[in-house]
Amino acid sequence: MMAATLGHAHEFKSGDLEITHPYARPSRPGQLNGSAWFGVNNAGSTGDRIIGVQSEVAKHTEIHDMDMQGGVMRMFKVDGVDVPAGGHVKLGEGNKLHVMLLELEQPLKAGDRFPLTIQFEHAGSVPVEVWVEEPRDGAATHGHSHH
Q1: What whole-number percentage of the chain has pLDDT above 90?
Q2: Averaged pLDDT, 80-88
Q3: Which Gene3D superfamilies match (predicted)?
Q4: How many CB atoms sit inside 10 A of residue 81's CB?
Q5: Which of these, 45, 55, 146, lies nearest to 100 by C-alpha position?
Q6: Strand ranges (E), the chain
């Protein structure tokens, strides 16, 4: 299993997989749960699958999706997310996939960073660092750097 390494602009690599821009939003007072998002580029010729996530900042960590049912947005746990060969998956941009951080150990504050381990079916465990960032009004998050 290869260790993940920090890239130029908040990216982490493990073999053919590159994890891009892992981030979370600050939690609000009294908020018990949080969310995190990231992208995965797969430069390989074999697909992989995200099968789990773990972080010490929450008692439970799950991958969730959302859909509309009867005019109500419903969130539900998913068992995994496919990352196609030569493809890209983004949790949180253009879809409703996200990592739920359930029962936060402490509030998430802007400027903080925390570890998150992404478990892949084939690549194994890939540790990344999640940056807690304030939302940007209408600004695209792709391609930005933390320098």
Answers
A1: 70
A2: 96
A3: PCu(A)C copper chaperone
A4: 18
A5: 55
A6: 5-6, 11-14, 17-24, 34-42, 48-54, 58-69, 72-77, 81-83, 88-91, 98-104, 113-120, 124-132
Q: Beta-carbon neighbour count of residue 71 at 10 Å?
A: 5
pTM, rounded to two decimals: 0.83
CATH 2.60.40.1890 fits 7-132, yes or no: yes
- Locate tokens 């991958």: which residue? 63
Residue-wise pLDDT for 132-141, tens only, equals: 999 876 444 4
DSSP label at residue 145:
-
Structural contact between residues 111 and 5, judged by C-beta atoms closer than 8 angstroms: no
Residue 2: burial class (beta carbons within 10 Å; 0-12, 13-18, 19+): exposed
- Range of lowest pLDDT (62-71, 124-133, 134-143): 134-143
CA distance 90 to 123: 18
Mean pLDDT value across residues 2-13: 56
Among candidate residues 94, 100, 115, the one with its CA nearest the CA of residue 62: 100
